[in-house]
Each structure stands twice: as C-alpha cells, then as structure tokens.
Write a structure and sequence with these properties.
Keywords: Monooxygenase, Oxidoreductase. It comes from Streptomyces boluensis. GO terms for molecular function: monooxygenase activity. This is Monooxygenase. By secondary structure, the protein is α/β, with parallel strands linked by helices. The chain has 2 domains: 258 residues, FAD/NAD(P)-binding domain, CATH 3.50.50.60; 146 residues, D-Amino Acid Oxidase, Chain A, domain 2 (2-Layer Sandwich), CATH 3.30.9.60. Helix content is 32%, strand content 27%. It is built from 11 helices and 17 strands. An 8-stranded mixed sheet has the order 3-5-4-12-13-14-11-15. The protein is globular. The structure holds flavin-adenine dinucleotide.
C-alpha cells in the first residue's frame, strides 16, 4: 500500500470524496486546499443521482441514506398543448433517480471527510510544479508547499489539468443552461400532477428539466435547468470560449427577459409558473462545455470529477462520475505499493469511461438542444425510436445517470474490497 503526503486541490464533491479515497487507500497525510473561503452548502441547486448508481456508492461508503432526498420514478417529456395546465406527454420513461439539493450532498461528503484530513478553506492554488521527487504548489496568497502527489479536483477550470495538459480547455457546446430553484410549488388544479415525475418541457431548440428537491428545512424547492442556444443579437456578458459561468445576481435584464419570454411562449402554464417565480437575482447561467483528457493520472498528478471530464448535464451523471472516480482511486491505491502503479491503474480505470460520458453528452445535446425534432408531430412511438437512436442500446448500459461500476474491475485490484463488492 502506498502512503505519501497528498494534496487534493478543490474541496467540492470530487475533492471531499477523493480525499476520503486517498485516506482509505493508505495515504499518510491528506490535505484539501479549497479556494472558497466560506462553506459551500449554498452553492448550486439540484442534483439527481441514479438510484442504482447511488446503491453502489452507498455500499462503498461514499454516500449516506440519511441525506434528505426526493424520489423520482419517471421522466415525462412534455410540450405545451393549448391552455392545458400540465401540457401533453410526448414520451414517458422510467427514471429511477434520487433528487438532492447540491448543498446537502456536499455537506454529507464534507462530514465524511475524517478529522485527520486537513481541510483548508480560502486557499487558492496559483501554480503547480512537478518534478521527479514531488509536486510544489504555489498559493495565490503567496507561499509554497511540497507534496508527494497532487490530485486536481478543482473543477472545469482546473489549474492541475493546465499543468498536466497545457492548453487543453473545455470546449463550448454552443448553448447555455439557465438554472434556478423556486421555493415551494404553485397551486395546481389538475390531479395529474405527481412530483415523482421529473418533467422535461420541450420546445423548438431546447428543453427544460424540472424536479423537486428538499430545501434542507423540511420543505421543497422546484429545481429547473433550461437549455437553449442564445440568439446572436443577445449581448452576453461572458467570453464563452474561455470556461466561465454567470453566478446568481449577475444575470442581465436582457438574458433574463429572453428566457422568460421563451418560457411564457412555449411552456404549459403550470411549468411556466414554476420557472417564472424564481427571481432574476437567484437565477444563474452555466454555459455547457465538453472536456475529456488523454489521461486521468500522469507522473505525480491525477485528476478527478469535472477537472478530468465535463460531460453535458443531459447525461445526469457528473456527480456520480466524480464519486466513482474516488472509489476507483481508493481501490487502485489499496492495490499497489507505489504511486506509479496506483496512478496507472486509476488512469486505466477512468479515462475511457470519462470519454464515453462526454460522447454520450454530445449525442444528447445534439438531439435534445441543437437539432430538436418536431415535437408537435411526435407521438410516443416516435419518441421511443428517437431516444433509442441516442442511447444506441439497452438503457441500463447507455451511461444515462452514470455507468454501472464494473464488477471485475473492482475485484481485480483491491485486497480490501468487501465494501466495494457489495454494490457491484
Ligand atoms: C446545469 C448542470 C446540471 C447538472 N446536473 C447534474 C445532475 O443532476 N446529476 C449529476 O450527477 N451531475 C449534474 N451535473 C454535474 C455535476 O454538478 C458536476 O459534475 C459535479 O458537481 C462536479 O463536481 P467537482 O467537485 O468535480 O467540481 P466543482 O463542484 O466545480 O468543484 C471544484 C472546486 O474546486 C475549487 N477550486 C477551483 N480552482 C481552485 C484553485 N485554483 N485552488 C483551490 N481550489 C480551487 C472550487 O472552488 C470548487 O469548490 C450538472 C452540471 C450542470 C452544469
């Protein structure tokens, strides 16, 4: 088992899980360096985890049944149908997911990071220098520190990745995600409203995913993400070619008005109300990017989560992939006596899978946003064929919601793998 003094850059979902993985794997000392000075609970909105992937991760000890969640059973693709409150179903799918607020998921992961891991908030990394003996990190506030191995869990703008693969950046997919979460839900006159149905409201040139998440105080919020290509005349206060986002409070009136007009025009009235009741200052924008790396680990550096792979969110598997990265890293760590072998095993276990998620995300994005079908004429049989054309095989193997953990890959490497086996 390899020990070592390890730094994890980034203390979000991938960072907390990876630190846990390194410690369980046998690292002597683990330090998380997180740029944000405050706690991260309030960041983001909803995140959904496929129930089968959740079960694997729970069995492996990375998530906890106590985290508040809201069940999703099916996904109803819905379009406006005159004044009908909930619209018309274009297609219906099984969608066994658990819906979380991002904050509770992060809090749970943070809680799981053992006390012997040092979590330093408000510590940004400006530069990474690797040599044959170790890695030196330069802090943005000044000062340097040396480690045996550094894991970049620093998201889509990763500074660790920049060092491993200079010039490799996420590529803008050509469209945006508008996001928000409204407190409570509007009154509904229809008895057909079922909150275990995730709604995907479709319109020409995009769609909007709507589902409920726990608000952390015993109530519910209505979480939504709307994907579409902004028209050329719309001024964007963003350079989309360089990875970026527009946080809450920064949405311009023009961008907000564009999205609201689209919602009023194309959404069934009830779902329009769910989105429109989110105030402008609480909505935000995440441009959609693709990113894959040639290697998850090289030399004394490794990547996890979005630092390694950004698959479009239509895959519904980014958080799952980040947690699985950690689990596979733990297994690789346990199985090898030196970092070179552990890193190589981790790389072999994750690089191709990451690329396949990115590929699936591109296919989904093309069909569901860039080149949408004629929803008006689509019937459920057309829908089924359209969906099958995207996943290309049985749904459980498609990667939608994340790929199942490979039983044999779990069994190959680790001597102490009982907890991993349970979920595979
Ligand atoms: C619109 C949208 C919807 C999504 N919905 C889902 C979903 O339903 N289900 C799902 O599974 N996934 C979803 N995802 C994907 C998921 O959110 C991400 O894959 C996941 O959160 C990645 O976590 P991470 O820890 O890798 O990155 P991040 O959460 O981005 O964390 C990176 C951390 O690194 C820190 N950091 C960055 N640079 C530095 C530095 N130089 N020094 C120190 N610290 C640094 C940052 O402050 C941050 O805390 C969605 C994504 C989007 C855009």
């Amino acid at each position: 088992m390899f020990g070592g003094n390890i730094a994890v850059v980034g203390g979000s979902i991938a960072g907390c899980a990876t630190a846990l993985a390194a410690l369980r794997g046998g690292a002597e000392k683990v330090t998380i360096l997180e740029r944000a000075a405050d706690r991260l609970q309030e960041r983001g909105v909803g995140v959904s985890l496929h129930r089968d992937r959740y079960a694997e991760l729970e069995a492996a000890g990375y998530v906890d049944a106590d985290m508040p969640w809201s069940p999703i059973d099916q996904r109803i693709w819905t379009m406006r149908d005159g004044e009908s409150e909930l619209g018309r179903a274009v297609g219906v799918q099984d969608a066994p997911f658990r819906a979380y607020s991002w904050g509770s998921l992060w809090s749970e992961l943070r809680r799981r990071v053992p006390a012997e891991v040092e979590y330093r908030s408000g510590v940004g990394i400006a530069a990474v220098e690797e040599d044959a003996e170790g890695v030196t990190l330069d802090f943005t506030a000044g000062g340097r520190e040396r480690f045996d191995v550094v894991i970049g869990a620093d998201g889509y703008r990763s500074v660790v990745r920049d060092t491993m693969f200079p010039g490799l950046r996420p590529t803008y997919a050509g469209y945006l995600g508008w996001r928000g979460a409204s407190p409570g839900a509007p009154e509904c006159g229809s008895s057909d409203l079922v909150w275990t149905d995730l709604r995907t409201v479709v319109f020409p040139g995009g769609h909007c995913v709507i589902y409920r998440i726990p608000d952390g105080a015993g109530g519910m919020r209505v979480n939504w993400v709307l994907y579409t290509t902004p028209p050329e005349h719309l001024a964007l206060p963003l350079n989309l070619q360089s990875p970026t986002s527009l946080p809450p409070g920064k949405l311009s009136t023009e961008l907000d008005a564009f999205a609201r007009d689209l919602v009023r025009k194309h959404f069934p009235p009830y779902w329009a109300e769910c989105v429109l009741r989110t105030p402008r200052e609480e909505s935000f924008i995440q441009p959609i990017y693709d990113l894959e790396v040639p290697h998850y680990a090289r030399g004394r550096l490794a990547l996890a989560g979005d630092a390694a792979t950004v698959a479009r969110p239509h895959t519904g598997g980014g958080a799952v992939k980040a947690l699985q990265d950690a689990l596979i890293l733990e297994q690789a760590w346990r199985a090898h006596d030196d970092w070179a072998a552990a890193g190589a095993a981790y790389d072999a276990g994750r690089t191709a899978l990451g690329a396949s998620m990115v590929d699936l995300g591109r296919t989904f994005g093309q069909a569901q946003v860039v080149d949408t079908p004629d929803w008006e004429t689509m019937r459920t049989s057309d829908f089924d064929a359209w969906w099958k054309g995207q996943i290309g095989g049985p749904e459980r193997n498609s990667g939608f919601g994340g790929h199942a953990l490979q039983k044999d890959s779990l069994e190959k490497d680790g001597p102490e793998k009982d907890s991993l086996k349970k979920g595979s």
